[in-house]
TrEMBL record:
This is Polyisoprenoid-binding protein YceI. Residues 1-17 form the signal peptide. It comes from the Bacteria. Residues 41-223 form the Lipid/polyisoprenoid-binding YceI-like domain. InterPro entries: Lipid/polyisoprenoid-bd_YceI, TTHA0802/YceI-like_sf. Keywords: Signal. It holds the Pfam family YceI. The keyword RNA-binding does not apply.
Length: 225
């Protein structure tokens, strides 16, 4: 495969995948049993819910950032507790913010296209990704590190990306207010856990110039059906 310029790959490192990584606020394990829905069903608002991503070259250089969109989602809420939930992510919606591409010879559209091709997310073959909650528990504030402000829960769920499914765990802020619920989280993930490797080996410059860490931000709004 042709390699398009290493500065472009910083972003390519990117995205969403999710988990493990070197950040202590996120962990990755094998696929787990999905949580049983209990309580009322809340439908996710596709207009206000969003996923943000950010990635870098190694050393923190040339950051790239952008967004992904949800195509469907719902949460189960029992009293004041989220008990389960499922979300589908549209990988074809992947966007690179043009403000993150400052080099005169680079275009955000070129990077978007490269991230969508078989070198990375192969969105024609894998048009969607999925996240299914396996557990929600109270957050131990003494062990939570680099969590979003106001984080009060620990969320675990199976993330399916490309043809792999792994379970990820991260701190989140969950707020249930009557007929509405919101979930916010930020964490760092490791793209290599899902086999997202552009280089042919660890020594390939196309691989080692790109940080494996990806910063993910999530905001979800949902309302009772």
């Amino acid at each position: 495969m042709k390699k398009i310029g290493l500065s472009m790959f910083a972003a390519a490192a990117i995205i969403f995948a999710s988990c493990g990584g070197s950040n202590s606020n996120t962990s990755t394990t094998g696929e787990q049993s999905v949580a049983e829905a209990q309580g009322d069903t809340y439908a996710v608002d596709m207009n206000t819910s969003k996923i943000n991503w950010k990635a870098f070259h190694k050393g923190g250089f040339a950051p790239r950032w952008g967004t992904l969109s949800l195509t469907s989602g719902e949460l189960s809420v029992d009293g004041s507790n989220v008990t389960a939930g499922e979300f589908t992510i549209d990988m074809k919606s992947l966007k690179v913010d043009s403000a993150s591409v400052t080099e005169a010879d680079k275009k955000s559209s070129d990077l978007e296209n490269h991230l969508k091709n078989p070198d990375f997310f192969d969105v024609e073959k894998f048009a969607t990704a999925a996240f299914k909650i396996t557990k929600v528990s109270d957050l131990d504030a003494t062990t939570a590190k680099d969590a979003i402000e106001g984080a009060n829960k620990t969320v675990s769920g199976n993330l399916t990306l490309l043809d792999s499914t792994l379970n990820i765990t991260f701190p989140a802020k969950v707020a249930v207010d009557g007929d509405k619920v919101s979930v916010d989280a930020k964490f760092t993930v490791n793209r290599a856990d899902w086999g997202i490797k552009f280089g042919t080996s660890e020594g390939d410059p196309a691989e080692w110039m790109i940080s494996k860490d990806i910063e993910i931000g999530i905001h979800v709004d949902a309302a009772k059906k």
